[in-house]
């Protein structure tokens, strides 16, 4: 486990860089993580996916995989890869401050 500082807030991360406590997440932190991952600005489409991923995690205890992320958020799988080019489910989860979805490498 390690600690990183985003938007002036120290957060606990696991060995893969995912939040260990999703309660530490804020939208400002999300924007900073996105910039570090090569997304200059989070658009409404990004936020739709991020908010859906957080909602699913809070309801089920697990973030959605790519197919579920696309279906549930209303953003096509093709667009997910355009929005989150380094792997939509994994990248969206990191930005959303939730653990890596099951099934992601």
Detailed description of the structure:
- The protein has 105 residues and is mainly α.
- Helices cover 49% and strands 10% of the residues.
- The chain has one domain (2-96): DsrC protein, C-terminal domain (Arc Repressor Mutant, subunit A).
- Strands 1-2 form a two-stranded antiparallel ribbon.
- A hairpin with a 2-residue loop joins strand 1 and strand 2.
- Helix 2 (44-60) packs across helix 3 and helix 2 (44-60) crosses helix 5 (88-96).
- The two termini are 19 Å apart.
**Shape field:** globular
Please, how many helices?
5
Radius of gyration: 12 Å
Q: How much is the average pLDDT?
A: 93
- Please tell me the total number of domains: 1
Care to count the β-strands? Answer: 2
CATH superfamily: DsrC protein, C-terminal domain
Largest sheet: 2 strands, antiparallel
- Straight-line N-to-C gap: 19 Å
